[in-house]
């Protein structure tokens, strides 16, 4: 598979997953409105849409600042680290992107992430460990990967997806509280009431889990896409491949690792997956990143 084919395939899969996610959110809203609301299913759809829109706008305009703050990132200027600044600047020019803000995270673990609602408001954060631990071409590959997230609008996409996850959890929890405060609609009684109660309880339990699974699936697809896009940018697949090899060989987790921002990083901030093959299948469903070995294999074929 060529680089361009890899990019097109991942884009199609990502669009499908996001559409599935949105349909899932609206479906929960419809159910709430149909069962609990006076305005029927349409009222529930409107409620879900309003909540999702408000939270999405909040995330888009403040989410990047929260992510950088939680990572302990500090913004740098050119004079603070000319080497890193020039690498980012040169690759930004090559990619046709505005110069992003550059942040350093004081952490010995090799990792990096990008954030921002669009290329003009984007930021790249690199750990001190990755700057010191990689060769020039390898660090270029990592920076190109993060710039690809910006160029492909992955940073905006994942902000929206995270908010959809939160919206689903909020709707599911709200549905449970409304059930006990108001009860069901009068027309639902007897066996129908029990059926709706069972569906509602299942949604409360399963909705946040399903939402997380979809979020993680989207995140994994965008990593493959960013890898392929980085190769187009640097024209040197070995740089990123060797960087991923070094990242995979390190042990330990980042000092400020947390589940809310784990999907942003180039590699899992909680450390490499060392489980046996028999345990990896189920674990991979709940992983924000595809296995590094699979990414290296894909890069080797480009």
TrEMBL record:
Binds 1 zinc ion per subunit. The chain crosses the membrane at residues 15-36, 42-62, 157-178, 190-214. Pfam families: Peptidase_M48. Zn(2+) binds at residues 145, 149, 223. Gene3D superfamilies: Metalloproteases ('zincins'), catalytic domain. Keywords: Cell membrane, Hydrolase, Membrane, Metal-binding, Metalloprotease, Protease, Transmembrane, Transmembrane helix, Zinc. Its cofactor is Zn(2+). It is an enzyme of class 3 (hydrolase). Belongs to the peptidase M48B family. This is Protease HtpX homolog.
């Amino acid at each position: 598979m060529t680089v361009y084919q890899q990019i097109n395939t991942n884009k199609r899969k990502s669009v499908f997953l996001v559409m599935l996610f949105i349909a899932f959110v609206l479906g929960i809203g419809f159910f709430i409105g149909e069962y609990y609301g006076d305005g029927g299913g349409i009222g529930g759809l409107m409620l879900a849409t309003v909540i999702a829109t408000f939270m999405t706008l909040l995330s888009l305009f403040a989410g990047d600042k929260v992510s950088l703050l939680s990572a302990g990132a500090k913004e740098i200027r050119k004079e603070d680290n000319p080497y890193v600044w020039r690498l980012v600047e040169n690759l930004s020019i090559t990619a046709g992107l505005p110069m992003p803000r550059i942040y350093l995270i004081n952490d010995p673990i090799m990792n990096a992430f990008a954030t921002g609602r669009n290329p003009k408001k984007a930021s790249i954060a690199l750990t001190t460990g990755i700057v010191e631990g990689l060769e020039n071409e390898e660090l270029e590959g990592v920076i190109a990967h993060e710039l690809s997230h910006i160029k492909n609008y992955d940073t905006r996409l994942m902000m929206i997806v995270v908010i959809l996850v939160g919206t689903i959890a909020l709707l599911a929890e709200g549905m449970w509280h409304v059930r006990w405060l108001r009860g069901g609609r009068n027309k639902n009684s007897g066996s129908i009431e029990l059926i709706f109660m069972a569906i509602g309880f299942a949604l409360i339990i399963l909705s946040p889990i399903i939402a997380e699974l979809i979020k993680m699936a989207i995140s994994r697809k965008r990593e493959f896409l960013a890898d392929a896009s980085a190769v187009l940018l640097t024209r040197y697949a070995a740089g990123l491949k060797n960087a991923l090899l070094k990242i995979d060989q390190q042990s330990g987790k980042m000092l400020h690792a947390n589940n809310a921002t784990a999907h942003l990083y180039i590699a899992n901030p909680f450390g490499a997956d060392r489980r046996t093959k028999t345990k990896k299948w189920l674990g991979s469903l709940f992983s924000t990143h595809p296995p590094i070995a699979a990414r290296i294999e894909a890069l080797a074929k480009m």
